[in-house]
């Protein structure tokens, strides 16, 4: 029958538009698998506790399995009149196995049921996000390894600052995504507690075994307060928070890829597979993928703010407002997974233009700091050294020369302490390789970090 499970106290049918307006089936049907999985664990517990008979539980579980098969075959009709995934499945169960199906909801409410479903669902999605993150980290590592000694300009204020290794730049993102993975693992840890048994809000009068349900579903334990169990959406917020930071990192990488593939930078070539053309300008190859990921970062931030605002000031325990938690959460999951998936591939296929990077690194007096450090090592205070090299650079600008092109006499105009060995310090390689303390851009330092990253991935 199409009759609503809660119709008992009502005398009039629900307004058609209200039905549509209040329904969540359009989006919460994606949790069908978890709803059924949770119901099976619940039915098994009810039988174990003697709340329903073993036969009844068998019938219910077989009915649920057959519904799962139907949904997977596309042979299940989701009804808006049945509001959400929980009632759609329960109504279908009763239709299929008869009144005994009505025993499934004993000692349960949709409030603890939905809290369980979202946790189960998100727990798997976090695993999927972690797998995509891993693939992206692998692509970054592989690019770093393949281009270990390629020198590029490092920037501050987007002005040429000091030469760095391209591999060092890739490993910077590796570190960011490693922290993102850590945040996702934290989310998984804290969400892994089983809320069923909270009932509508106060618990249940039936002699249930919550630990047994938790164990069946692979939870680390049960939640400790029934009101909190049905009111808490922290886990979704934490996920959206971690996802926002992750997208911020992807967006920064996007920005750099977009910049690097311009005709002005020419540092990289993105594969044609990740770009599109212009309908009017025949020469164009646009970096749509990084642009879109940069853009989609905004919607993920928006989802976080939606969810925070949704939860703000809600009185305990369940409120219908909370049905609005799903779309921002689902959209965040889809966006993050899609962005990571496409980035892992795009980074793997990215072509590095080592010559262009090197030429750019040589421009902009990128080894000026090395001259200053040299002067400091000769006993001059750093502030004076800064002044000396500042004047040297001004001389270079006025005469159109680069630092390594200056004669020794020209150098010595600015400081007597400069000797012929200055030329050993102003090459790009010398500049890079001098920064060899842990975390620096020197080739040996980068090699160490690459080895460490490889080891931590194998371990
Ligand atoms: N569809 C609802 C949601 O997503 C399920 C819980 C409904 N509970 C209730 N008391 N109306 O929040």
From TrEMBL:
The keyword Lyase applies. CDD domains: Argininosuccinate_lyase. Transmembrane segments: none annotated. It catalyses: 2-(N(omega)-L-arginino)succinate = fumarate + L-arginine. InterPro entries: Arg_succ_lyase_C, Argininosuccinate_lyase, Fumarase/histidase_N, Fumarate_lyase_CS, Fumarate_lyase_fam, Fumarate_lyase_N, L-Aspartase-like. It is found in: Cytoplasm. GO terms for biological process: L-arginine biosynthetic process via ornithine. Pathway: Amino-acid biosynthesis; L-arginine biosynthesis; L-arginine from L-ornithine and carbamoyl phosphate: step 3/3. GO terms for molecular function: argininosuccinate lyase activity. Residues 365-433 form the Argininosuccinate lyase C-terminal domain. Residues 8-302 form the Fumarate lyase N-terminal domain. Keywords: Amino-acid biosynthesis, Arginine biosynthesis, Cytoplasm, Lyase. Its EC number is 4.3.2.1. The keyword Plastid does not apply. In the N-terminal section; belongs to the lyase 1 family. Argininosuccinate lyase subfamily. This is Argininosuccinate lyase. It comes from Desulfuromonas soudanensis.
């Amino acid at each position: 029958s199409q009759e609503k499970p809660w119709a008992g106290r009502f005398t009039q049918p629900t307004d058609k538009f209200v039905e549509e307006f209040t329904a969540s089936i359009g989006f919460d049907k994606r949790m069908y698998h978890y709803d059924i999985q949770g119901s099976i664990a619940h039915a098994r517990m009810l039988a174990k506790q003697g709340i329903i008979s073993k036969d009844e539980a068998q019938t219910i579980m077989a009915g649920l399995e057959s519904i799962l098969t139907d949904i997977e075959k596309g042979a299940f009709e989701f009804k808006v009149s049945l509001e959400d995934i929980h009632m759609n499945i329960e109504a279908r169960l009763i239709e299929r196995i008869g009144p005994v199906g009505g025993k499934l909801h004993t000692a349960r409410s949709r409030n603890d049921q939905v809290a369980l479903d979202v946790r189960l669902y998100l727990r798997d999605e976090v695993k999927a996000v972690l797998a995509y993150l891993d693939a992206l980290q692998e692509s970054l590592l592989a690019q770093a390894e393949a281009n270990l000694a390629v020198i590029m300009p490092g920037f501050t204020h987007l002005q040429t600052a000091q030469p760095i290794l391209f591999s060092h730049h890739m490993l910077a993102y590796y570190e960011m995504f490693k922290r993102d993975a850590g945040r996702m693992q934290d989310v998984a840890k804290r969400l892994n507690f089983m809320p069923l048994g909270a009932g509508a809000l106060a618990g249940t009068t039936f002699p249930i075994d919550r630990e047994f349900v938790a164990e069946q579903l692979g939870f680390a334990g049960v939640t400790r307060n029934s009101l909190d169990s049905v009111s808490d959406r922290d886990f979704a917020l934490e996920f959206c928070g971690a996802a926002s930071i992750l997208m911020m990192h992807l967006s920064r990488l996007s920005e750099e890829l977009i910049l690097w593939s311009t005709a002005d930078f020419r540092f990289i070539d993105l594969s044609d597979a990740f770009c599109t053309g212009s309908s009017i300008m025949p020469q164009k190859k646009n970096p749509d993928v990084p642009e879109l990921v940069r853009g989609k970062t905004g919607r993920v931030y928006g989802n976080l703010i939606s969810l925070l605002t949704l939860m703000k000031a809600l009185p305990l325990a369940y409120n219908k407002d909370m049905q609005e938690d799903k779309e921002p959460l689902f959209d965040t999951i889809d966006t993050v997974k899609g962005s990571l998936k496409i980035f892992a591939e795009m980074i793997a296929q990215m072509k590095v233009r080592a010559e262009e990077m090197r030429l750019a690194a040589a421009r902009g007096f990128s080894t000026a700091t090395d001259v200053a450090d040299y002067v400091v090592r000769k006993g001059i205070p750093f502030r004076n050294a800064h002044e000396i090299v500042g004047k040297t650079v001004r001389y270079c600008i006025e005469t159109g020369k680069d630092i390594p092109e200056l004669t020794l006499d020209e150098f010595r105009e600015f400081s007597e302490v400069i000797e012929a060995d200055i030329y050993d310090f102003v090459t790009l390689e010398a500049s890079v390789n001098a920064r060899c303390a842990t975390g620096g851009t020197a080739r040996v330092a980068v090699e160490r970090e690459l080895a460490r990253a490889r080891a931590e991935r194998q371990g």
